């Protein structure tokens, strides 16, 4: 099994419900288990700013899938939840980005690892740090480097609106 880190976001329809549904699907996918989930964050859109705020979270998963198999799974979940790719950085029902997949470094068709813009986005880093396994350095990236980069992005406010235990209970259907 390989540890992978994902970033999830949504801002149209029922964003929280779509994030929970996506996380449930990831947790129940063959060869994949949900190891940790962050709290839920509200963030302002970047790039195209004339759209609703986003809800974001991160997940750490254990998977038997290779990077392209995981990409196929995440894109299938996005399609099932109504994702239509029309406008770059535009409104979306769900977005699932693979940030890291073990020690993989690749720049291939449709997938670059580590994710090329993850260190530029507070809405990725704040939730990612919640699920980061201490002592781990996938693709040579350390917790210290992520914390330093998040500190540099202070002009990108992120507001946690739900804690990780509450979100996990909702995913498990306890709440």
UniProtKB/TrEMBL annotation:
<keyword id="KW-0418">Kinase</keyword>
<keyword id="KW-0808">Transferase</keyword>
<dbReference type="GO" id="GO:0046654">
    <property type="term" value="P:tetrahydrofolate biosynthetic process"/>
</dbReference>
<keyword id="KW-0289">Folate biosynthesis</keyword>
<keyword id="KW-0067">ATP-binding</keyword>
<dbReference type="GO" id="GO:0005524">
    <property type="term" value="F:ATP binding"/>
</dbReference>
<comment type="pathway">
    <text>Cofactor biosynthesis; tetrahydrofolate biosynthesis; 2-amino-4-hydroxy-6-hydroxymethyl-7,8-dihydropteridine diphosphate from 7,8-dihydroneopterin triphosphate: step 4/4.</text>
</comment>
<dbReference type="GO" id="GO:0003848">
    <property type="term" value="F:2-amino-4-hydroxy-6-hydroxymethyldihydropteridine diphosphokinase activity"/>
</dbReference>
<dbReference type="InterPro" id="IPR035907">
    <property type="entry name" value="Hppk_sf"/>
</dbReference>
<dbReference type="GO" id="GO:0016301">
    <property type="term" value="F:kinase activity"/>
</dbReference>
<keyword id="KW-0547">Nucleotide-binding</keyword>
<dbReference type="Pfam" id="PF01288">
    <property type="entry name" value="HPPK"/>
</dbReference>
<dbReference type="InterPro" id="IPR000550">
    <property type="entry name" value="Hppk"/>
</dbReference>
<feature type="domain" description="7,8-dihydro-6-hydroxymethylpterin-pyrophosphokinase">
    <location>
        <begin position="88"/>
        <end position="99"/>
    </location>
</feature>
<protein>
    <recommendedName>
        <fullName>2-amino-4-hydroxy-6-hydroxymethyldihydropteridine diphosphokinase</fullName>
        <ecNumber>2.7.6.3</ecNumber>
    </recommendedName>
</protein>
<dbReference type="GO" id="GO:0046656">
    <property type="term" value="P:folic acid biosynthetic process"/>
</dbReference>
